[in-house]
Amino acid sequence: MNESGRVDMITVAARGSVGTDSRRAENAGAGGSWRSSKWLALAEFLIVALIFYADHRGWIPFSKTPELLLLGWISLRVRRLRWRDVGLTRYRSWAMTIAVGVFLGALLETFQLLVTQPILARLLGRQPDLELFRMLTGNIKMTMLFIALSWTLAAFGEEMVWRGYLMHRVADVGGRRPRAWIVSLVLVSVVFGFAHGYQGLTGWAEEGIAGLALGLMYMRTGRNLCVPIVAHGVCDTIDMVLIFLGKMPGM
């Protein structure tokens, strides 16, 4: 077999693998098994609400993302799925994944800084409350630590939870029809903003819009998680650098 033939076979095999993963995730939301029951999804939403309540009461010391991520992993295991089945794989190629993620992340951050944040600050009368991050200004060690946390806990962890787990579970309740995915996109984005309530009303609204943008990235890339993970990490890294330099609007 010549080189061209081998390349064609590899391409077809890769496409088949991605298609199989997508079908497995779709099939998990259909059928009569208790694993695909809407009651199971509703029970998981109750646990999510309890985690939010525990976080609000201060019973979770640092972040609720690890607890939500663990719940997502258990849910997938119970339904005989893997993270790959909800999009944790490359988009076409790793070079393409990184390039698209970096571009969209920079674009989203620019949009936030120049459009959404000024408009929301004018409408609501205040900038997002970023007092929690003030310690980063001029502090290179803390900035590097927070950048590392941005890529692990925020970019990777939050995208796995919000787009990879919760968007799928909300869509499951609606039978994964197109309308169910739209409702899931909007609802999960609103709750994503609420999860950043420590930034005040302006931060809540801004993060909700960011969640909507990340959700759209997820949908438009064929429900691929790696693109919004990279985009999320790029956004947060730019924010941390601006805070370090004392150039973040509102600080």
Protein model, in words:
This protein is mainly alpha-helical. The chain has one domain. The chain contains eight helices and no strands. α3 runs parallel beside α5. The chain is globular, with a radius of gyration of 19 Å. The N terminus is likely disordered.
How do the strands and helices of this protein lay out in sequence?
Blueprint: H1 3-28, H2 38-56, H3 65-78, H4 94-124, H5 140-173, H6 178-194, H7 200-220, H8 226-245
Please write the string of helix (H) and strand (E) elements: HHHHHHHH
Strand percentage lies at under 5%
**Structural class by helix and strand composition:** mainly alpha
The end-to-end span amounts to: 63 Å
> Helix count, per DSSP?
8
Helix % is over 70%
Write down the oligomeric state: single chain
List the defining traits of the structure above.
disordered N terminus, globular, single chain, mainly alpha, 251 residues
What can be said about this structure in brief?
The protein is mainly α and 251 residues long.
